[in-house]
Amino acid sequence: MNASRDCKRVRDKITQILLRLESIEKQQDKVMADLRKYLSDRVDDAVQQLSEYLSSTDVKARFTTWTLDEVPKAGGSWDETEYLIKKALLSRLREIIEKWEEDNKVFANACHRLLQHFQQRYNFVEGQLRNLQVAVTAGGLVEKDPPLWLLTNKQMVFGYSCTVASFSLAGSVLGLSYKETIFLASFPAIVGAWMLLKDWFTNKAYEGDECAQMAKRSADFLAAATQKDKLKLLVQEELKQAELFLEQIESRIPELIQADKMLYEELIAQTRTQKELQDLYQPIMNEVSHLRGQLVVFGIKEVCFPDISEEELDWKEDASSHLGCGAFGAVYKGTIRRNGDVKTVALKLCSDVVDTQNACSFLEEVENFR
Protein backbone atom coordinates (compact mmCIF):
# COMPACT_ATOMS: atom_id res chain seq x y z
CA MET A 1 0.00 0.00 0.00
CA ASN A 2 2.78 2.39 0.83
CA ALA A 3 4.36 1.66 -2.56
CA SER A 4 1.43 3.41 -4.25
CA ARG A 5 1.63 6.52 -2.06
CA ASP A 6 3.65 9.68 -1.99
CA CYS A 7 7.00 8.96 -0.29
CA LYS A 8 7.03 12.20 1.75
CA ARG A 9 3.51 11.56 3.02
CA VAL A 10 4.47 8.03 4.05
CA ARG A 11 7.54 9.30 5.95
CA ASP A 12 5.47 11.95 7.74
CA LYS A 13 2.94 9.36 8.82
CA ILE A 14 5.53 6.81 10.00
CA THR A 15 7.35 9.54 11.93
CA GLN A 16 4.17 10.37 13.81
CA ILE A 17 3.52 6.68 14.43
CA LEU A 18 7.02 6.20 15.85
CA LEU A 19 6.48 9.14 18.21
CA ARG A 20 3.20 7.64 19.36
CA LEU A 21 4.87 4.24 19.82
CA GLU A 22 7.60 5.78 21.97
CA SER A 23 4.91 7.39 24.11
CA ILE A 24 3.23 4.00 24.62
CA GLU A 25 6.60 2.46 25.49
CA LYS A 26 7.30 5.09 28.16
CA GLN A 27 3.94 4.41 29.82
CA GLN A 28 4.65 0.71 30.33
CA ASP A 29 6.90 1.03 33.40
CA LYS A 30 4.08 2.75 35.28
CA VAL A 31 1.52 0.28 33.91
CA MET A 32 3.53 -2.71 35.12
CA ALA A 33 4.15 -1.09 38.51
CA ASP A 34 0.39 -0.57 38.88
CA LEU A 35 -0.28 -4.21 37.95
CA ARG A 36 2.32 -5.41 40.47
CA LYS A 37 0.66 -3.25 43.12
CA TYR A 38 -2.73 -4.70 42.17
CA LEU A 39 -1.36 -8.24 42.59
CA SER A 40 0.20 -7.37 45.96
CA ASP A 41 -3.06 -5.87 47.20
CA ARG A 42 -5.02 -9.00 46.25
CA VAL A 43 -2.48 -11.18 48.05
CA ASP A 44 -2.73 -9.03 51.18
CA ASP A 45 -6.53 -9.18 51.06
CA ALA A 46 -6.47 -12.98 50.87
CA VAL A 47 -3.89 -13.19 53.69
CA GLN A 48 -6.08 -11.02 55.90
CA GLN A 49 -9.17 -13.14 55.26
CA LEU A 50 -7.33 -16.42 55.89
CA SER A 51 -5.65 -15.04 58.99
CA GLU A 52 -8.96 -13.93 60.46
CA TYR A 53 -10.48 -17.32 59.73
CA LEU A 54 -7.65 -19.40 61.21
CA SER A 55 -7.53 -17.12 64.27
CA SER A 56 -11.24 -17.51 64.95
CA THR A 57 -12.42 -19.22 68.12
CA ASP A 58 -14.28 -21.86 66.12
CA VAL A 59 -11.22 -22.92 64.10
CA LYS A 60 -8.96 -22.97 67.15
CA ALA A 61 -11.46 -25.16 68.97
CA ARG A 62 -11.78 -27.57 66.05
CA PHE A 63 -8.05 -27.74 65.46
CA THR A 64 -7.07 -28.38 69.08
CA THR A 65 -9.84 -30.84 70.01
CA TRP A 66 -8.89 -34.50 69.61
CA THR A 67 -10.68 -37.72 70.52
CA LEU A 68 -9.02 -41.04 71.21
CA ASP A 69 -10.15 -42.23 67.77
CA GLU A 70 -8.44 -39.26 66.10
CA VAL A 71 -5.10 -39.03 67.87
CA PRO A 72 -2.16 -40.88 66.31
CA LYS A 73 -1.19 -44.02 68.14
CA ALA A 74 2.30 -44.24 69.58
CA GLY A 75 4.82 -45.91 67.30
CA GLY A 76 7.65 -48.23 68.09
CA SER A 77 10.03 -45.29 68.53
CA TRP A 78 9.81 -41.57 69.20
CA ASP A 79 10.84 -40.82 65.65
CA GLU A 80 7.92 -42.84 64.36
CA THR A 81 5.50 -41.29 66.86
CA GLU A 82 6.76 -37.81 66.03
CA TYR A 83 6.24 -38.41 62.33
CA LEU A 84 2.64 -39.65 62.87
CA ILE A 85 1.79 -36.58 64.96
CA LYS A 86 3.26 -34.20 62.38
CA LYS A 87 1.30 -35.89 59.63
CA ALA A 88 -1.96 -35.69 61.61
CA LEU A 89 -1.51 -31.96 62.31
CA LEU A 90 -0.67 -31.20 58.69
CA SER A 91 -3.64 -33.22 57.46
CA ARG A 92 -6.04 -31.42 59.79
CA LEU A 93 -4.80 -27.97 58.79
CA ARG A 94 -4.99 -28.90 55.11
CA GLU A 95 -8.59 -30.06 55.50
CA ILE A 96 -9.59 -26.88 57.34
CA ILE A 97 -8.06 -24.59 54.69
CA GLU A 98 -9.47 -26.65 51.82
CA LYS A 99 -12.96 -26.53 53.34
CA TRP A 100 -12.66 -22.77 53.84
CA GLU A 101 -11.61 -22.31 50.22
CA GLU A 102 -14.39 -24.60 49.01
CA ASP A 103 -16.99 -22.54 50.90
CA ASN A 104 -15.62 -19.08 50.17
CA LYS A 105 -13.60 -19.39 46.92
CA VAL A 106 -11.20 -16.70 48.15
CA PHE A 107 -8.18 -17.98 46.19
CA ALA A 108 -10.21 -18.89 43.11
CA ASN A 109 -12.00 -15.53 42.98
CA ALA A 110 -8.80 -13.57 43.58
CA CYS A 111 -6.99 -15.48 40.85
CA HIS A 112 -9.89 -14.96 38.43
CA ARG A 113 -10.00 -11.22 39.11
CA LEU A 114 -6.25 -10.93 38.67
CA LEU A 115 -6.20 -12.81 35.38
CA GLN A 116 -9.14 -10.80 34.10
CA HIS A 117 -7.56 -7.49 35.12
CA PHE A 118 -4.19 -8.41 33.58
CA GLN A 119 -5.86 -9.63 30.38
CA GLN A 120 -7.84 -6.42 30.01
CA ARG A 121 -4.72 -4.32 30.49
CA TYR A 122 -2.80 -6.38 27.97
CA ASN A 123 -5.67 -6.10 25.47
CA PHE A 124 -5.74 -2.34 26.05
CA VAL A 125 -2.04 -1.97 25.23
CA GLU A 126 -2.28 -4.35 22.30
CA GLY A 127 -5.23 -2.30 21.04
CA GLN A 128 -3.06 0.80 21.03
CA LEU A 129 -0.44 -1.02 18.97
CA ARG A 130 -3.10 -2.39 16.63
CA ASN A 131 -4.40 1.13 16.03
CA LEU A 132 -0.94 2.19 14.93
CA GLN A 133 -0.73 -0.80 12.59
CA VAL A 134 -4.05 0.20 11.04
CA ALA A 135 -2.84 3.80 10.74
CA VAL A 136 0.07 2.62 8.59
CA THR A 137 -2.28 1.46 5.86
CA ALA A 138 -5.18 3.89 6.45
CA GLY A 139 -5.47 7.24 4.74
CA GLY A 140 -4.62 10.51 6.47
CA LEU A 141 -2.15 11.22 9.26
CA VAL A 142 -2.17 9.45 12.57
CA GLU A 143 -4.03 11.15 15.40
CA LYS A 144 -2.11 12.44 18.41
CA ASP A 145 -4.15 10.22 20.71
CA PRO A 146 -6.05 7.73 18.51
CA PRO A 147 -9.13 5.84 19.72
CA LEU A 148 -8.12 2.85 21.80
CA TRP A 149 -9.48 -0.63 21.23
CA LEU A 150 -10.30 -3.00 24.02
CA LEU A 151 -10.02 -6.42 22.40
CA THR A 152 -12.16 -8.26 24.94
CA ASN A 153 -12.73 -11.28 22.70
CA LYS A 154 -9.07 -11.95 22.03
CA GLN A 155 -7.53 -14.47 24.35
CA MET A 156 -3.87 -14.72 25.18
CA VAL A 157 -2.85 -18.24 26.11
CA PHE A 158 0.18 -18.54 28.31
CA GLY A 159 1.41 -21.86 29.59
CA TYR A 160 2.44 -22.36 33.15
CA SER A 161 3.58 -25.49 34.97
CA CYS A 162 3.06 -26.57 38.56
CA THR A 163 6.50 -27.60 39.74
CA VAL A 164 5.57 -30.35 42.15
CA ALA A 165 8.08 -32.85 40.77
CA SER A 166 10.73 -31.77 43.27
CA PHE A 167 8.35 -32.64 46.11
CA SER A 168 7.54 -36.13 44.83
CA LEU A 169 10.63 -37.69 46.41
CA ALA A 170 9.91 -36.03 49.76
CA GLY A 171 6.34 -37.29 49.60
CA SER A 172 7.40 -40.87 48.90
CA VAL A 173 10.02 -40.84 51.67
CA LEU A 174 7.58 -39.45 54.24
CA GLY A 175 4.85 -41.81 53.16
CA LEU A 176 2.44 -39.00 52.21
CA SER A 177 -0.39 -39.48 49.75
CA TYR A 178 -0.33 -37.61 46.44
CA LYS A 179 -2.87 -35.08 47.75
CA GLU A 180 -0.81 -34.46 50.88
CA THR A 181 2.34 -34.07 48.79
CA ILE A 182 0.64 -31.42 46.64
CA PHE A 183 -0.51 -29.65 49.78
CA LEU A 184 3.05 -29.63 51.10
CA ALA A 185 4.25 -28.24 47.76
CA SER A 186 1.54 -25.57 47.70
CA PHE A 187 1.91 -24.43 51.29
CA PRO A 188 5.57 -23.81 52.09
CA ALA A 189 4.60 -22.01 55.30
CA ILE A 190 3.58 -25.36 56.77
CA VAL A 191 7.05 -26.77 56.28
CA GLY A 192 8.57 -24.20 58.62
CA ALA A 193 5.92 -24.79 61.27
CA TRP A 194 6.32 -28.54 60.85
CA MET A 195 10.03 -28.37 61.58
CA LEU A 196 9.33 -26.62 64.88
CA LEU A 197 7.82 -29.84 66.16
CA LYS A 198 11.16 -31.60 66.40
CA ASP A 199 11.97 -30.22 69.85
CA TRP A 200 8.45 -30.57 71.16
CA PHE A 201 8.43 -34.33 71.35
CA THR A 202 11.94 -35.12 72.48
CA ASN A 203 11.72 -37.06 75.77
CA LYS A 204 8.06 -36.13 76.21
CA ALA A 205 5.57 -38.58 77.64
CA TYR A 206 2.92 -39.28 75.07
CA GLU A 207 1.27 -42.60 75.74
CA GLY A 208 -1.57 -42.41 78.22
CA ASP A 209 -2.06 -38.66 77.70
CA GLU A 210 -2.52 -38.51 73.91
CA CYS A 211 -5.53 -36.13 73.77
CA ALA A 212 -4.01 -33.55 76.12
CA GLN A 213 -0.63 -33.76 74.40
CA MET A 214 -2.23 -33.30 70.94
CA ALA A 215 -4.31 -30.35 72.18
CA LYS A 216 -1.17 -28.55 73.38
CA ARG A 217 0.87 -29.38 70.29
CA SER A 218 -2.03 -28.39 68.04
CA ALA A 219 -2.28 -24.94 69.61
CA ASP A 220 1.46 -24.35 69.21
CA PHE A 221 1.41 -25.69 65.65
CA LEU A 222 -1.53 -23.52 64.60
CA ALA A 223 0.04 -20.39 66.13
CA ALA A 224 3.31 -21.04 64.28
CA ALA A 225 1.71 -21.97 60.97
CA THR A 226 -0.73 -19.05 60.79
CA GLN A 227 1.63 -16.13 61.26
CA LYS A 228 0.97 -13.59 58.50
CA ASP A 229 4.44 -13.84 56.97
CA LYS A 230 3.94 -17.58 56.55
CA LEU A 231 0.38 -17.17 55.30
CA LYS A 232 1.63 -14.71 52.69
CA LEU A 233 3.89 -17.41 51.25
CA LEU A 234 0.92 -19.74 51.22
CA VAL A 235 -1.34 -17.26 49.42
CA GLN A 236 1.37 -16.30 46.91
CA GLU A 237 1.72 -19.96 46.00
CA GLU A 238 -2.05 -20.27 45.55
CA LEU A 239 -2.05 -17.20 43.25
CA LYS A 240 1.06 -18.31 41.39
CA GLN A 241 -0.87 -18.68 38.14
CA ALA A 242 -1.70 -14.97 38.13
CA GLU A 243 1.90 -14.02 38.91
CA LEU A 244 3.20 -16.17 36.04
CA PHE A 245 0.65 -14.61 33.73
CA LEU A 246 1.82 -11.15 34.74
CA GLU A 247 5.44 -12.12 34.11
CA GLN A 248 4.47 -13.25 30.63
CA ILE A 249 2.80 -9.90 29.99
CA GLU A 250 5.87 -8.04 31.28
CA SER A 251 8.02 -9.78 28.69
CA ARG A 252 5.43 -9.85 25.91
CA ILE A 253 4.55 -6.14 25.70
CA PRO A 254 8.16 -4.95 25.12
CA GLU A 255 8.50 -7.64 22.44
CA LEU A 256 5.41 -6.33 20.63
CA ILE A 257 6.58 -2.73 20.87
CA GLN A 258 10.09 -3.57 19.67
CA ALA A 259 8.79 -5.60 16.73
CA ASP A 260 6.57 -2.71 15.62
CA LYS A 261 9.37 -0.21 16.08
CA MET A 262 11.71 -2.23 13.86
CA LEU A 263 9.03 -2.48 11.18
CA TYR A 264 8.26 1.26 11.20
CA GLU A 265 11.93 2.18 11.17
CA GLU A 266 12.41 0.01 8.10
CA LEU A 267 9.43 1.64 6.41
CA ILE A 268 10.69 5.16 7.09
CA ALA A 269 14.17 4.23 5.81
CA GLN A 270 12.76 2.85 2.55
CA THR A 271 14.58 4.25 -0.53
CA ARG A 272 13.35 1.99 -3.33
CA THR A 273 11.00 3.38 -5.96
CA GLN A 274 7.32 2.61 -6.03
CA LYS A 275 7.72 0.36 -9.06
CA GLU A 276 10.57 -1.57 -7.46
CA LEU A 277 8.46 -2.20 -4.36
CA GLN A 278 5.42 -3.26 -6.37
CA ASP A 279 7.45 -5.63 -8.56
CA LEU A 280 9.03 -7.15 -5.44
CA TYR A 281 6.02 -7.56 -3.22
CA GLN A 282 3.05 -8.16 -5.56
CA PRO A 283 3.97 -11.82 -6.32
CA ILE A 284 4.51 -12.42 -2.60
CA MET A 285 1.15 -10.84 -1.76
CA ASN A 286 -0.57 -13.03 -4.35
CA GLU A 287 0.98 -16.18 -2.87
CA VAL A 288 0.15 -15.11 0.69
CA SER A 289 -3.45 -14.41 -0.30
CA HIS A 290 -3.74 -17.88 -1.83
CA LEU A 291 -2.22 -19.59 1.22
CA ARG A 292 -4.46 -17.60 3.55
CA GLY A 293 -7.49 -18.69 1.54
CA GLN A 294 -6.41 -22.34 1.80
CA LEU A 295 -5.98 -22.04 5.57
CA VAL A 296 -9.40 -20.43 5.99
CA VAL A 297 -11.09 -23.14 3.92
CA PHE A 298 -9.34 -25.79 6.01
CA GLY A 299 -10.40 -24.03 9.21
CA ILE A 300 -14.03 -23.76 8.11
CA LYS A 301 -14.34 -27.33 6.90
CA GLU A 302 -12.09 -29.24 9.30
CA VAL A 303 -11.65 -27.21 12.51
CA CYS A 304 -14.62 -24.95 13.14
CA PHE A 305 -17.82 -26.39 14.50
CA PRO A 306 -21.10 -24.56 13.84
CA ASP A 307 -22.59 -22.73 16.80
CA ILE A 308 -26.07 -23.49 15.47
CA SER A 309 -27.31 -26.81 14.09
CA GLU A 310 -29.73 -27.14 11.20
CA GLU A 311 -32.19 -28.90 13.52
CA GLU A 312 -32.52 -25.69 15.57
CA LEU A 313 -33.44 -23.55 12.55
CA ASP A 314 -36.78 -23.26 10.75
CA TRP A 315 -36.86 -21.22 7.54
CA LYS A 316 -37.86 -21.38 3.89
CA GLU A 317 -36.00 -20.22 0.84
CA ASP A 318 -38.99 -18.51 -0.77
CA ALA A 319 -40.26 -15.03 -1.55
CA SER A 320 -42.33 -14.77 1.66
CA SER A 321 -39.21 -15.19 3.82
CA HIS A 322 -36.85 -13.18 1.62
CA LEU A 323 -35.64 -9.99 3.35
CA GLY A 324 -33.03 -8.71 0.91
CA CYS A 325 -29.81 -9.50 -0.88
CA GLY A 326 -26.36 -8.09 -1.46
CA ALA A 327 -23.13 -8.84 -3.25
CA PHE A 328 -22.32 -11.68 -0.86
CA GLY A 329 -25.67 -13.46 -0.58
CA ALA A 330 -29.38 -13.34 0.23
CA VAL A 331 -31.01 -12.81 3.62
CA TYR A 332 -34.06 -14.76 4.81
CA LYS A 333 -36.31 -14.60 7.85
CA GLY A 334 -36.48 -17.66 10.08
CA THR A 335 -36.71 -18.87 13.69
CA ILE A 336 -34.38 -20.67 16.06
CA ARG A 337 -35.42 -23.00 18.88
CA ARG A 338 -33.12 -23.25 21.90
CA ASN A 339 -33.84 -24.31 25.47
CA GLY A 340 -37.57 -24.14 24.85
CA ASP A 341 -37.43 -20.56 23.51
CA VAL A 342 -38.26 -19.55 19.92
CA LYS A 343 -36.61 -16.44 18.50
CA THR A 344 -36.88 -14.73 15.14
CA VAL A 345 -33.58 -14.54 13.27
CA ALA A 346 -32.13 -13.44 9.95
CA LEU A 347 -30.15 -16.00 7.94
CA LYS A 348 -27.65 -14.92 5.31
CA LEU A 349 -26.84 -17.48 2.64
CA CYS A 350 -23.57 -17.32 0.77
CA SER A 351 -24.30 -17.16 -2.94
CA ASP A 352 -21.06 -18.94 -3.93
CA VAL A 353 -19.29 -22.10 -2.84
CA VAL A 354 -16.61 -21.26 -0.29
CA ASP A 355 -13.15 -21.71 -1.83
CA THR A 356 -9.65 -20.22 -1.55
CA GLN A 357 -10.74 -17.14 -3.50
CA ASN A 358 -13.63 -16.06 -1.30
CA ALA A 359 -12.94 -17.86 2.01
CA CYS A 360 -11.45 -14.79 3.70
CA SER A 361 -14.42 -12.64 2.67
CA PHE A 362 -16.76 -15.34 3.95
CA LEU A 363 -15.00 -15.38 7.32
CA GLU A 364 -15.11 -11.57 7.55
CA GLU A 365 -18.84 -11.70 6.82
CA VAL A 366 -19.34 -14.22 9.65
CA GLU A 367 -17.38 -12.01 12.06
CA ASN A 368 -19.45 -8.98 11.05
CA PHE A 369 -22.60 -10.87 11.96
CA ARG A 370 -21.20 -11.65 15.41
Structure write-up:
With 370 residues, the chain is α+β, with helices and mostly antiparallel strands. It folds into two domains: 2-241, no CATH class; 310-369, 2-Layer Sandwich (Phosphorylase Kinase, domain 1). It is 65% helix and 7% strand. The chain has helices at residues 7-54, 57-64, 78-104, 106-137, 165-174, 178-186, 188-195, 210-225, 228-238, 240-268, 274-303, 359-369; strands at 313-315, 322-325, 329-338, 341-350. Strands 1, 2, 3 and 4 form a four-stranded antiparallel sheet that branches. A hairpin with a 3-residue loop joins β2 (322-325) and β3. α1 packs antiparallel against α10, α5 packs across α6 (178-186) and α7 runs antiparallel to α9. Residues 144-186 and 193-203 have low confidence and may be disordered.
